[in-house]
Amino acid sequence: METTDVLIVGAGIIGLTVAREIRLRWPDQRVTILEKEADIALHASGRNSGVLHAGFYYDPNSLKAKLTNSGNKQLTDFCINHGIKVNRCGKLVVASSEDDLPSLSDLYYRGIANGVELQLINEKEAKEIEPRVRIHERAIYSPGTSAVDPVEVTRTIAKDCESIGVVIMRGESFRTGEERGREVSVATSRRLLSTGLMINAAGLYADKVAHEFGVGTNYQVQPFKGLYLLANESFGRLNSHVYPVPDLRNPFLGVHFTVTVDGHVKIGPTATPALWREQYGWREGFSFRELSETTGNLFRLLTKHDSTLRKSAPTEAAKYLRSQLVRQASRLIPDVTANQFTNWGNPGIRAQLVDKTTMSLVSDFKIETTQRTLHILNAVSPAFTSSLPFASLAVDKLAKLG
Question: Could you give the 3-state DSSP secondary structure of residue 285?
Fold first, then answer.
């Protein structure tokens, strides 16, 4: 049986930043990461929008609020120090009607409570930032929101990890695990490993790994697919991300325009339920067991008496049609047409945690521990932005485990 001091399951941005933080604090610790794919950033870490969020959406008492603003600054500094391009384009959140104005004000004051630099601006000021935007009276401008290439960032962090001695076992997956006194035994697809501490950063399969250790048995990951439409050259450019006013009871931010790191534009993402965990295409990654689990869970979520998902389900289902996705986006930029957005981008899957006891979506980051294991059960957006301080928080918890 091979041994390591710390074993991490998953080489997404969270697993990588945790590994990096451990080695920086304790250089004598042997740190090993299991990554089931042959390369880095093939799932959520490389398939997200690339937006570095400023942190004004989140409940001031949440971990998301605590970590996102500092995460934005830390990850921006990391990119600059490693020669990674950052598009500091900012973000406009615009009211589309009178009904949006109270929520826009709530969002602004929530952001101020979170220590985020924001400006509450009028229509004239918003159009000076982005002349094409449609706005009803007011908008929020976030100068600290930016864009990066998520694949480049994640793979650079992986190289940084390996340069300080982290071992990444690519093409090797977690199969089973058991905690035995002062060690954890793990069977992978290739070998048996013994480790002093194990960190579960398995993303879409974090709940499955946790259940092996009797952790988080009342939680299940429910996958949601994020689809993007890419702008043709005929659409032109935007100066800023443009977002609608969100429903703060819902973890999804609505259809919006994202400016990429190289200045191109995309519409999305959607938040349409995926039927299995890695359903990037219609048949890709198909699992009958996962189909049964996710559809059963989705039915219970939709039939819950106070379900916010049920209210948004018809709108979300329509977004599979390109014309409908563009039509919803036209609330923000009125001159957009379907023939300017003819190509679908690389879809992503959000590993959204569900509390099965209340049939509710878990909105905040979620970490649970045993004596020798730490399980990152919910690391959805803005986990990419928050990854560096998130890693510091996780390693603080590891230190308490000894």
Answer: coil
